[in-house]
Amino acid sequence: MSVVITEPEINSYFLCSKSALPELLKQAEHEKANILSDLKAYVKGNIDIVIRQEFYPMGYAVAGDLLVNGEVARSYDCIDLLFLDLNNLMFSILLKQ
After folding, report:
1. Alpha carbon distance 39, 89 (integer Å)
2. 11: pLDDT confidence band, cut at 50, 70 and 90?
3. Residue with the larger pLDDT of the pair 37 and 6
4. Which end of the chain is less congested by CB atoms within 10 angstroms, N or C?
5. Whole-angstrom distance, CA of residue 60 vs CA of residue 41
6. Residue 37 and residue 75: Cα distance in Å, rounded?
7. Residues pairing with 50 in the sheet
8. DSSP letter string over 50-92?
9. Phi first, then psi: what are they for 67, rounded to 5°?
């Protein structure tokens, strides 16, 4: 029995090919800069995002860690979920104001 590994049809943070990984890492860095600048308007403190690549048998993923005061507060297998959580946090703070 032979196994055929194919390239993902659509590259995303969740699953991508090795050739698409550098572009997705650049996109994640750009999105990180945007969301951190927006977040500073709502939250005080030392908050940062560490972007990393993860290898899985099906391909690669762009993962991330949320750092609060230099310590990992939460790890995400897909950095989209981290960005979504931070957007939801800002939205809930905005609604309370």
Report:
1. 9
2. confident
3. 37
4. N
5. 33
6. 20
7. 65
8. EEEEEEETTEEEEEEEEEETTEEEEEESSHHHHHHHHHHHHHH
9. -105, 130
